[in-house]
Amino acid sequence: MSTYPRKPVESARILADMANASGLGPIDLANEKHYSIIEISKLWALSQKTVRKIFENEPGVIQWGAEATLHKRGYRTLRVPETVLQRVHRKLRHAS
Predict the structure, then answer these.
(1) Model pTM score
(2) 10 Å Cβ neighbour count for 90?
(3) Is residue 24 one of the residues assigned to a domain?
(4) Residue 84 lies in a domain
(5) In the chain, how many H helices and how many E strands?
(6) Where are the strands (E) in the chain, listed by range?
(7) Residues 6+ away with beta carbon under 8 Å from 12
(8) What is the gyration radius of the CA atoms in the chain, in angstroms?
(9) Cβ contact 76:63 at 8 Å
(10) Is 38 helix (H, G, I), strand (E, B) or coil?
């Protein structure tokens, strides 16, 4: 194990502040269901490209993958926590 202390994840701190501000209380993101882009596209009957555009810059979405290089395209995997999915759905519902 490393002797260096771990830094808290910034997005987790932002989500905790948002949860406290909204009155929802503490959110345990690690234990809630995380949806893939394919699952959300089937649930919402939208294309995967559209769902990816909706969630790619949303706070709280877990992203990992490899950046594009000269000879390989980049890959990025997104996982959307259930609370983020519900928040975006509410936001889109109120916008229409």
Answers:
(1) 0.66
(2) 10
(3) no
(4) yes
(5) 4, 3
(6) 34-36, 62-66, 75-81
(7) 29
(8) 16
(9) yes
(10) helix
Residue 75 near residue 65 (C-beta atoms within 8 A): yes
Return the structure tokens found at 73. Answer: 């395209």
Q: Is residue 13 part of a domain?
A: no
Q: How far apart are alpha carbons 16 and 5 in whole angstroms?
A: 21
Question: At 68, which amino acid appears?
Answer: A
**How many domains in the chain?**
1
The answer as to whether 75 is a domain residue is yes
Q: How far is CA 86 from the centre of its chain?
A: 11
Report helix angle 82-95 to 48-55, nearest 10. Answer: 100
Instruction: Give 30-89 pLDDT, tens digit per residue.
Output: 789 999 999 999 999 999 999 999 999 999 999 999 888 999 998 889 999 999 999 999
SS3 79: strand
Amino acid at site 76: R
What range defines the domain where residue 39 resides?
32-95
